Structure formats: structure tokens, C-alpha cells
Amino acid sequence: MALEGCGDLPYQLDFSPLEQVGFTPSTVVVQLPPGLKQYSTTIAECISKITGWKNIILHGDPSYGACDLSYPELSTVLGADLIVHVGHTPYPKSLSPTVEPGGRPRIVYVPAKSKTSISEDAAARAAEILSPNARRVGLTSTVQHAHLLPALASMLMNHGLETVLPRGRPPYFLPGQVLGCDYTTALAAGPVDAYIFLGGGFFHPLGLYLATRKQVVQVDPYSSTVRDVTPDAERVYKVRLYKVSQAFDARVWGIIVGLKTGQYRPMLIRRITRLVEEKGAKYSLIAFERVTLQELRDIATQYDAFVVTSCPRLPIDDLSHCEKPVLTPGEARMALSGRLEPYLFPW
Ligand code: SF4
Questions:
Q1: Is residue 107 domain-resident?
Q2: Residue 142: CB within 6 Å of ligand 1?
Q3: pLDDT tens profile 266-320
Q4: Is residue 342's pLDDT more than 80?
Q5: Considering only CA atoms, which residue is closest to atom 6 of ligand 1?
Q6: Pair 18, 104 in one domain
Q7: Is the peptide bond before 105 cis (omega within 30 degrees of 0)?
Q8: Pocket test for ligand 1, best of 313, 316, 345, 347 (most atoms within 8 A of CB)
Q9: Which protein residue has the closest C-alpha to ligand 1 atom 5?
């Protein structure tokens, strides 16, 4: 099942997983990543046309990842018996045991591959920007562009580079695919001198740098730009070390617990509470669906430091202006053991 004849979208959607559903759902909820929301009615019509399903509800809330399926609400409030989640691979169960509770609603993941391409010129510029010492280079991307990495590898080889396309981990990771909170695929490349990241924005290349501390050159297929993100990422890294040092003497910790099904991490919470207790410090567990800067400021006078166990990108991307240090789990482990090295990201 492809989307042929259902509209000219910048992504190739593969609806073949819908064939595995095996029942006629009474209520279907369709979840789309931000880049596909503008095509939501077209996509819903396509699903209806292909499957014959009638009661399709579009999920309007943001869907930044498969960690955030709103499973309990869709089940209890809407009585949905199927979630069609477009554009992400399943969230790894190793990161959250509650991500897919099982039973109803069932979840089907529909791949959405970007139709962009990479030019020879972009590959040549990436090879030029890489440090002269970089001979062996790891290739990474997000789920939308990961299928383009083999073509990029061939182009880079013409510039004398040895490329490593790290293997995937089905069904969670395609070869070379990283998540904002998981760079194990990149690390599986083994010893490399640098990484090339294929994709847009600063979010993933920043995470790649923090997780590997290697040079990261970004090839952006949207803007056709190529740049070394390392200096900007290095600046963020230095801020993170300062935040860790601010929490060295914290006596009262606020431990943020995630309420989204893929962001509740009981083992990690136990690990951090144990470290806090071993340090002779105190803590409170504070549950949030999504914690904001204002909400943290409202309670900040009671704490010396916070650690966010839900989405480890929140401390870096959303909460870094809080007056109290707000750390990722890895950074909290550093602070609680009183050391700045090695930098642990994200867990
Ligand atoms: S980075 Fe945050 S939002 Fe993205 S997949 Fe991970 S937990 Fe979810």
C-alpha cells in the first residue's frame, strides 16, 4: 500500500503495515509529526480510501516522538481501538517499559520517507569541512532521511573517506538512525574520527555531539547547506558542565517523573533516588506530563537542583534558563558523584 494518487506530498508514506491490523477498528486515531500536519486531511482520506475505515480522528496535539502516543487518553476518553502513528519508528522499550501497554488500542507505525535527495556538491562540501585528520566517518540521520545514507556513503567514498553506516536495531532504529535521546546507533559505528549528520535543525546534531564529543558536520537536505556544528555544540557543552558543577552541593533534589507513557522510567528513577540517598541528600518526586520553565520556577525555591527523567532534552533545549540547575539523568549522576568527566549524555 503506497500513497500513489493520494496527493503530492514531500514524504513517501508506506501504508503496508495497515494490512497487518487484522480487524476493522471502530475508532482510529491518526498521529502525525509536525512536518506532516499540514497534509492531515489528505492523509486521513487516503487511509479511509485504502482501508475502508470510517471513524478517523486526527490527533491535533504535537507528536514529537513515539515516546508520546497519549495512549491512556485515547483509550479511555475516545475509546480508540487503533492508533496509526506516522513518521516515527517505535520508541525503544529499553528506555521506557510503559511505552506500549498492550491490549487496545493497537498501534501501527507508518513510515514516512523524505523525498529530498543529496547532491554531489553537498557531499563534496562535507568532505571539505571535515577535519583533515578525519579519515573514518560515521553516518547518522533521523528516521525521515536514513534511507539516503547509503547514497551519501558512496559519494563520500569518492572523496577518499572511509564511511561507517552503523547497523540498525529493528524495529526501533534504521541503520544510522538516532533519536534526540538515544545515540547508541551512532556509538555502534565504533572508533570513528568524526560524524556526518544528515537532516535539518540543531536538535539532533547537538545531541550527537554531546553523546560522542566528536566533530559533527551537518548536511541539511532541506536548505542544501553543509556546516560544522561542532563550535556551537561545544558552547552548549560548556554550559552543561557549568550546570553540573552548580549542582555538586545540592542538598534537596527535585526529580521530575514523566507522565507520558514513553517517558516514565521507573528503573532510572530508582537509580537516581538511590544516588541522592547515598549522598545524604533529600528529594521529592514531581510528576509532569510536560514540565515548563514557568512551572519549575513556581516550585524552585524548595530545591537546590532538578533532574528530568522524562525527556532528557528538556533541561538542555527548554529549561536551561532556570535559576536552579536542571540536569539530564547523566548530568545528575555526574553531579552526585562530584565529577565533571566523563560527560554522560543523555542517561
Ligand atoms: S528526545 Fe524526548 S521527545 Fe524525542 S523521542 Fe526522546 S524522550 Fe521523546
A1: yes
A2: no
A3: 999 999 999 999 999 999 999 999 999 999 999 999 999 999 999 999 999 999 9
A4: yes
A5: 181
A6: yes
A7: yes
A8: 313
A9: 65
Among 114, 129, 157, give the residue marking a domain's end.
114
100 Cα–ligand 1 center, Å: 15
Binding site membership of 211 for ligand 1 (Cβ less than 6 Å): no
Contact yes or no for 329/315 (Cβ under 8 A): no
Question: What is the domain extent for residue 314?
Answer: 243-336
Domain contains 175: yes
CATH assignment at residue 247:
3.40.50.11860
What pLDDT shows up at residue 326?
98
- Report the Cα 72 to chain-centroid distance in Å: 21
* Dihedral of the alpha carbons of 291, 337, 195, 217, in degrees to the nearest 10: 60
Does the pLDDT of residue 3 top 80, yes or no?
A: no
Q: Which of 228, 256, 277 is the last residue of a domain?
A: 228
Flag whether 233 is in a domain: no
Is 308 near ligand 1, meaning CB less than 6 Å away?
no
CA 134-169-141 angle, 5° bins: 45
Residues 113, 98: Cα–Cα separation, whole Å: 27
Q: How far is CA 13 from the centre of its chain?
A: 20
Nearest of 70, 1, 4 to residue 31 by alpha carbon: 70
- Give tens-digit pLDDT for 111-165: 999 999 999 999 999 999 999 999 999 999 999 999 999 999 999 999 999 999 9
From the CA of 182, how far away is ligand 1's center (Å)?
Answer: 8
- 11-13 and 112-114 strand pairing: antiparallel
Q: Are 214 and 195 in contact (CB under 8 A)?
A: yes
CB of 313 within 6 A of ligand 1: the answer is yes
Order of all β-strands in the sheet with 326-327: 282-288, 252-258, 305-308, 326-327
When pLDDT is averaged across residues 9-26 and rounded to a whole number, the result is 93
pTM assigned to the model:
0.96
**Are residues 46 and 135 located together in one domain of the fold?**
no
Same domain, 102 and 138: no
